[in-house]
Amino acid sequence: MGTLPRITATLAALLLSTFSLNALSDDFMDAGGRAIAGEKFKVCADPLNPPYSTKNKDGFENKIAELFAKELGQDIEYTWLPQRLGFIRNTLNAPLNDTDVETNVYKCDVIMGVPAGYDLTLTTAPYYQSTYVLLIAKGRGWDDITDPAQLADLPLQKQEALKIAMFDRGPSTTWMQKNGLLDVGIPYQSMSGDGENNVAMQIEKDLKAKKIDMVILWGPMAGHVVAQSPKNSYIMLPMKSTPGMKFEFAMAMGVRNGDKPRKELLNKLIASKKTEIDRIMSGYNIPLLPLPEQAIREDND
Question: Is 9-128+250-297 a CATH 1.10.150.320 domain?
Fold first, then answer.
Protein backbone atom coordinates (compact mmCIF):
# COMPACT_ATOMS: atom_id res chain seq x y z
CA MET A 1 0.00 0.00 0.00
CA GLY A 2 0.96 3.67 0.20
CA THR A 3 4.62 4.67 0.35
CA LEU A 4 4.12 8.42 -0.02
CA PRO A 5 5.53 10.75 2.65
CA ARG A 6 3.14 11.19 5.56
CA ILE A 7 2.09 14.77 4.91
CA THR A 8 -1.37 16.27 4.97
CA ALA A 9 -3.30 16.85 1.76
CA THR A 10 -3.22 20.60 2.47
CA LEU A 11 0.57 20.63 2.73
CA ALA A 12 0.86 18.47 -0.39
CA ALA A 13 -1.33 20.89 -2.33
CA LEU A 14 0.76 23.82 -1.07
CA LEU A 15 3.99 22.16 -2.13
CA LEU A 16 2.65 21.17 -5.52
CA SER A 17 1.28 24.63 -6.21
CA THR A 18 4.82 26.00 -6.38
CA PHE A 19 5.44 24.02 -9.56
CA SER A 20 3.86 24.12 -12.99
CA LEU A 21 1.93 20.90 -13.58
CA ASN A 22 2.10 21.51 -17.30
CA ALA A 23 5.88 21.40 -17.06
CA LEU A 24 5.88 18.47 -14.63
CA SER A 25 3.68 16.39 -16.89
CA ASP A 26 6.32 16.48 -19.64
CA ASP A 27 8.39 14.14 -17.47
CA PHE A 28 5.63 11.55 -17.16
CA MET A 29 5.59 8.58 -19.47
CA ASP A 30 2.82 6.01 -19.78
CA ALA A 31 3.31 2.23 -19.56
CA GLY A 32 4.36 2.20 -23.24
CA GLY A 33 7.05 4.85 -22.78
CA ARG A 34 5.06 7.65 -24.45
CA ALA A 35 4.79 11.11 -22.95
CA ILE A 36 1.43 11.68 -21.29
CA ALA A 37 1.54 15.46 -21.75
CA GLY A 38 0.40 16.59 -25.17
CA GLU A 39 -2.01 13.66 -25.55
CA LYS A 40 -5.74 13.94 -25.33
CA PHE A 41 -7.28 13.47 -21.91
CA LYS A 42 -9.13 10.23 -22.69
CA VAL A 43 -12.01 9.48 -20.33
CA CYS A 44 -14.12 6.32 -20.02
CA ALA A 45 -17.65 7.39 -19.07
CA ASP A 46 -21.32 6.53 -19.02
CA PRO A 47 -23.36 8.79 -21.36
CA LEU A 48 -26.43 8.74 -19.09
CA ASN A 49 -25.34 8.63 -15.47
CA PRO A 50 -26.24 11.84 -13.64
CA PRO A 51 -24.92 13.31 -11.45
CA TYR A 52 -21.59 11.71 -12.45
CA SER A 53 -21.44 11.96 -16.23
CA THR A 54 -23.71 12.61 -19.19
CA LYS A 55 -23.20 13.11 -22.89
CA ASN A 56 -24.10 16.77 -22.27
CA LYS A 57 -21.01 16.86 -20.02
CA ASP A 58 -22.91 18.41 -17.09
CA GLY A 59 -21.99 15.82 -14.45
CA PHE A 60 -19.44 16.57 -11.75
CA GLU A 61 -17.04 13.98 -13.17
CA ASN A 62 -17.29 15.73 -16.55
CA LYS A 63 -16.43 19.06 -14.95
CA ILE A 64 -13.45 17.67 -13.03
CA ALA A 65 -12.18 16.03 -16.23
CA GLU A 66 -12.45 19.41 -17.97
CA LEU A 67 -10.54 21.03 -15.10
CA PHE A 68 -7.70 18.52 -15.39
CA ALA A 69 -7.55 18.64 -19.18
CA LYS A 70 -7.32 22.43 -19.12
CA GLU A 71 -4.48 22.28 -16.59
CA LEU A 72 -2.59 19.84 -18.83
CA GLY A 73 -3.34 21.76 -22.03
CA GLN A 74 -5.18 18.76 -23.48
CA ASP A 75 -8.48 18.23 -25.27
CA ILE A 76 -10.94 15.78 -23.75
CA GLU A 77 -11.91 12.68 -25.68
CA TYR A 78 -14.68 10.43 -24.32
CA THR A 79 -15.36 6.77 -24.85
CA TRP A 80 -19.03 6.42 -23.97
CA LEU A 81 -20.49 3.15 -22.69
CA PRO A 82 -23.22 2.37 -20.12
CA GLN A 83 -21.52 1.57 -16.82
CA ARG A 84 -22.58 -2.03 -16.39
CA LEU A 85 -20.87 -5.42 -16.35
CA GLY A 86 -17.91 -5.40 -18.75
CA PHE A 87 -17.49 -1.61 -18.62
CA ILE A 88 -13.78 -1.67 -17.73
CA ARG A 89 -13.00 -4.53 -20.12
CA ASN A 90 -14.64 -2.70 -23.01
CA THR A 91 -13.26 0.78 -22.28
CA LEU A 92 -10.19 1.22 -20.07
CA ASN A 93 -8.64 -2.14 -20.98
CA ALA A 94 -9.85 -2.23 -24.59
CA PRO A 95 -7.32 -1.62 -27.42
CA LEU A 96 -8.08 1.36 -29.62
CA ASN A 97 -8.22 -1.08 -32.52
CA ASP A 98 -10.02 -4.26 -31.57
CA THR A 99 -7.66 -6.38 -33.67
CA ASP A 100 -4.53 -5.26 -31.77
CA VAL A 101 -3.58 -8.04 -29.36
CA GLU A 102 -0.48 -6.28 -28.04
CA THR A 103 -0.87 -2.53 -27.84
CA ASN A 104 -0.10 0.49 -25.70
CA VAL A 105 -2.95 2.52 -27.17
CA TYR A 106 -6.34 2.09 -25.56
CA LYS A 107 -9.79 3.52 -26.09
CA CYS A 108 -9.52 5.61 -22.92
CA ASP A 109 -7.15 6.08 -19.99
CA VAL A 110 -9.06 7.19 -16.90
CA ILE A 111 -12.33 6.49 -15.13
CA MET A 112 -13.22 9.56 -13.10
CA GLY A 113 -14.99 7.74 -10.28
CA VAL A 114 -14.19 4.33 -8.73
CA PRO A 115 -14.09 3.18 -5.09
CA ALA A 116 -10.69 3.81 -3.49
CA GLY A 117 -8.70 0.58 -3.69
CA TYR A 118 -10.91 -0.88 -6.41
CA ASP A 119 -9.27 -4.11 -7.54
CA LEU A 120 -10.11 -3.86 -11.26
CA THR A 121 -8.06 -0.68 -11.70
CA LEU A 122 -5.08 1.11 -10.20
CA THR A 123 -6.63 3.85 -8.09
CA THR A 124 -5.49 7.36 -7.31
CA ALA A 125 -5.67 9.08 -3.97
CA PRO A 126 -9.37 9.58 -3.09
CA TYR A 127 -10.85 12.97 -3.89
CA TYR A 128 -14.17 12.76 -2.06
CA GLN A 129 -16.01 10.67 0.50
CA SER A 130 -19.77 10.32 0.82
CA THR A 131 -22.28 8.11 2.56
CA TYR A 132 -25.55 6.34 1.95
CA VAL A 133 -28.56 8.29 3.21
CA LEU A 134 -32.19 7.59 3.95
CA LEU A 135 -34.06 9.95 1.62
CA ILE A 136 -37.67 10.60 2.63
CA ALA A 137 -40.25 12.55 0.60
CA LYS A 138 -41.88 15.13 2.86
CA GLY A 139 -45.61 15.38 3.44
CA ARG A 140 -46.41 11.66 3.25
CA GLY A 141 -46.68 10.82 6.92
CA TRP A 142 -42.99 10.22 7.64
CA ASP A 143 -41.78 13.71 8.50
CA ASP A 144 -41.27 12.73 12.16
CA ILE A 145 -38.50 10.26 11.21
CA THR A 146 -35.20 11.73 12.40
CA ASP A 147 -33.12 8.54 12.52
CA PRO A 148 -33.23 5.57 10.10
CA ALA A 149 -33.31 3.22 13.10
CA GLN A 150 -36.85 4.45 13.86
CA LEU A 151 -38.16 2.45 10.88
CA ALA A 152 -37.30 -0.82 12.61
CA ASP A 153 -39.20 0.25 15.74
CA LEU A 154 -42.44 1.23 14.02
CA PRO A 155 -45.61 -0.72 14.92
CA LEU A 156 -46.25 -3.55 12.45
CA GLN A 157 -49.23 -1.80 10.87
CA LYS A 158 -47.14 1.32 10.28
CA GLN A 159 -44.26 -0.74 8.87
CA GLU A 160 -46.59 -2.41 6.40
CA ALA A 161 -47.51 1.03 5.08
CA LEU A 162 -43.90 1.81 4.22
CA LYS A 163 -43.15 2.32 0.54
CA ILE A 164 -39.38 2.01 0.60
CA ALA A 165 -37.21 1.11 -2.38
CA MET A 166 -35.11 -2.03 -1.97
CA PHE A 167 -32.17 -2.82 -4.25
CA ASP A 168 -31.06 -6.29 -5.28
CA ARG A 169 -27.75 -5.86 -3.44
CA GLY A 170 -25.68 -3.38 -1.47
CA PRO A 171 -25.48 -2.06 2.09
CA SER A 172 -29.03 -0.69 2.01
CA THR A 173 -30.42 -4.17 1.37
CA THR A 174 -28.24 -5.63 4.12
CA TRP A 175 -29.53 -2.99 6.52
CA MET A 176 -33.15 -3.68 5.61
CA GLN A 177 -32.63 -7.40 6.09
CA LYS A 178 -30.99 -6.88 9.48
CA ASN A 179 -33.89 -4.69 10.58
CA GLY A 180 -36.66 -6.98 9.33
CA LEU A 181 -37.84 -4.69 6.53
CA LEU A 182 -37.29 -6.86 3.45
CA ASP A 183 -40.95 -7.84 3.24
CA VAL A 184 -42.05 -4.22 2.84
CA GLY A 185 -39.36 -3.28 0.30
CA ILE A 186 -40.26 -2.40 -3.30
CA PRO A 187 -37.62 -4.09 -5.49
CA TYR A 188 -35.23 -2.22 -7.77
CA GLN A 189 -32.19 -3.28 -9.79
CA SER A 190 -28.91 -1.63 -8.83
CA MET A 191 -27.82 -1.79 -12.49
CA SER A 192 -30.59 -0.55 -14.74
CA GLY A 193 -30.92 -1.82 -18.30
CA ASP A 194 -33.05 1.22 -19.11
CA GLY A 195 -31.58 3.27 -21.95
CA GLU A 196 -33.49 6.39 -20.87
CA ASN A 197 -33.02 6.41 -17.09
CA ASN A 198 -30.21 5.55 -14.73
CA VAL A 199 -30.96 4.45 -11.15
CA ALA A 200 -31.03 7.99 -9.73
CA MET A 201 -33.33 9.20 -12.52
CA GLN A 202 -35.75 6.29 -12.03
CA ILE A 203 -35.85 6.74 -8.26
CA GLU A 204 -36.52 10.46 -8.69
CA LYS A 205 -39.43 9.79 -11.05
CA ASP A 206 -40.93 7.13 -8.80
CA LEU A 207 -40.67 9.34 -5.72
CA LYS A 208 -42.52 12.10 -7.54
CA ALA A 209 -45.14 9.61 -8.78
CA LYS A 210 -45.54 8.37 -5.16
CA LYS A 211 -44.69 4.80 -6.11
CA ILE A 212 -42.21 5.00 -3.25
CA ASP A 213 -41.92 7.37 -0.28
CA MET A 214 -38.31 6.74 0.72
CA VAL A 215 -35.08 5.06 -0.31
CA ILE A 216 -31.65 4.30 1.12
CA LEU A 217 -29.44 5.72 -1.61
CA TRP A 218 -25.75 6.46 -2.23
CA GLY A 219 -25.06 10.12 -1.46
CA PRO A 220 -24.34 11.48 -4.98
CA MET A 221 -27.48 9.80 -6.34
CA ALA A 222 -29.53 11.20 -3.46
CA GLY A 223 -28.09 14.62 -4.23
CA HIS A 224 -29.30 14.31 -7.82
CA VAL A 225 -32.81 13.41 -6.66
CA VAL A 226 -32.91 16.40 -4.30
CA ALA A 227 -31.68 18.74 -7.05
CA GLN A 228 -34.66 17.89 -9.27
CA SER A 229 -37.27 19.15 -6.79
CA PRO A 230 -38.07 22.40 -4.97
CA LYS A 231 -36.03 23.13 -1.87
CA ASN A 232 -37.06 21.25 1.29
CA SER A 233 -38.92 18.52 -0.60
CA TYR A 234 -36.93 15.77 1.11
CA ILE A 235 -35.46 14.73 4.44
CA MET A 236 -31.91 13.38 4.05
CA LEU A 237 -30.64 11.28 6.96
CA PRO A 238 -27.10 9.84 6.84
CA MET A 239 -26.86 6.11 7.49
CA LYS A 240 -24.59 5.11 10.37
CA SER A 241 -21.90 2.51 9.82
CA THR A 242 -21.65 -0.34 12.31
CA PRO A 243 -19.20 -3.24 12.57
CA GLY A 244 -19.77 -5.36 9.48
CA MET A 245 -21.99 -2.78 7.79
CA LYS A 246 -20.25 0.15 6.12
CA PHE A 247 -22.08 3.10 4.55
CA GLU A 248 -19.26 5.64 4.03
CA PHE A 249 -16.92 5.18 1.07
CA ALA A 250 -14.02 7.16 -0.38
CA MET A 251 -13.97 7.62 -4.16
CA ALA A 252 -10.92 7.91 -6.39
CA MET A 253 -10.04 7.81 -10.10
CA GLY A 254 -9.05 4.62 -11.87
CA VAL A 255 -6.36 3.95 -14.47
CA ARG A 256 -5.10 0.68 -15.96
CA ASN A 257 -3.25 -1.64 -13.63
CA GLY A 258 0.44 -0.91 -14.09
CA ASP A 259 -0.06 2.68 -15.33
CA LYS A 260 1.69 4.24 -12.33
CA PRO A 261 2.94 7.36 -14.15
CA ARG A 262 -0.61 8.38 -15.05
CA LYS A 263 -1.75 7.67 -11.51
CA GLU A 264 1.04 9.89 -10.14
CA LEU A 265 0.09 12.69 -12.49
CA LEU A 266 -3.58 12.47 -11.47
CA ASN A 267 -2.56 12.46 -7.81
CA LYS A 268 -0.71 15.73 -8.33
CA LEU A 269 -3.76 17.22 -10.02
CA ILE A 270 -6.07 16.01 -7.25
CA ALA A 271 -3.84 17.66 -4.64
CA SER A 272 -3.17 20.93 -6.47
CA LYS A 273 -6.79 21.38 -7.64
CA LYS A 274 -8.48 20.42 -4.38
CA THR A 275 -10.17 23.80 -3.95
CA GLU A 276 -11.62 23.71 -7.47
CA ILE A 277 -12.71 20.07 -7.08
CA ASP A 278 -14.47 20.90 -3.80
CA ARG A 279 -16.19 23.85 -5.46
CA ILE A 280 -17.48 21.64 -8.28
CA MET A 281 -18.70 18.98 -5.85
CA SER A 282 -20.51 21.55 -3.71
CA GLY A 283 -22.89 22.31 -6.57
CA TYR A 284 -24.46 18.84 -6.62
CA ASN A 285 -26.17 18.55 -3.18
CA ILE A 286 -23.90 15.61 -2.31
CA PRO A 287 -23.52 14.75 1.39
CA LEU A 288 -19.73 15.00 1.66
CA LEU A 289 -17.63 13.73 4.55
CA PRO A 290 -14.02 14.59 5.42
CA LEU A 291 -11.55 12.22 3.83
CA PRO A 292 -9.84 10.10 6.49
CA GLU A 293 -6.14 10.88 6.64
CA GLN A 294 -5.34 7.19 6.20
CA ALA A 295 -7.33 7.07 2.97
CA ILE A 296 -5.40 10.04 1.61
CA ARG A 297 -2.06 8.38 2.37
CA GLU A 298 -2.95 4.92 1.15
CA ASP A 299 -3.48 5.42 -2.56
CA ASN A 300 -2.92 1.80 -3.54
CA ASP A 301 0.53 2.02 -5.05
Answer: no
